[in-house]
Design goal:
Length: 111
């Protein structure tokens, strides 16, 4: 595993978001599109979660997202933030979105 300088790590803007809308991406088996409230601003997110989550189960969910990656177009959607999730290497079908263990408002910075 490669290492990362602390100065590079702190450049990431990781925040709590709340999913306000989610849908499957047409013509894709793997992608979901979601709109994420990151504290007074709603950002678009496209992620490879369609095999693990139903879109309706994501609405209202608190998630952890990276907010300052360069936007990327996928299947006609612009992804402005990125979900953070854990993948169980021993069971690749076990994917879990990162969330907070206590209620915190959207936009809260993860440190």
């Amino acid at each position: 595993m490669s290492t990362l300088d602390f100065e590079d790590f702190v450049k990431l803007d990781i925040r709590i978001g709340k999913v306000v809308k989610a849908e499957k991406v047409p013509n894709s088996k793997k992608l979901l599109h979601a709109e994420i409230d990151i504290g007074g601003e709603v950002k678009s997110c496209v992620g490879g979660l369609a095999e693990y989550y139903n879109p309706e189960d994501l609405v209202g969910k608190t998630v952890v997202v990276v907010t300052n990656l360069k936007p990327r177009k996928m299947f006609g959607y612009e992804s402005q933030v990125m979900f953070l999730a854990a993948l169980d290497k021993s069971n690749p079908s076990n994917v879990s979105l990162l969330t907070s263990d206590k209620p915190v408002p959207p936009g809260s910075k993860v440190t």
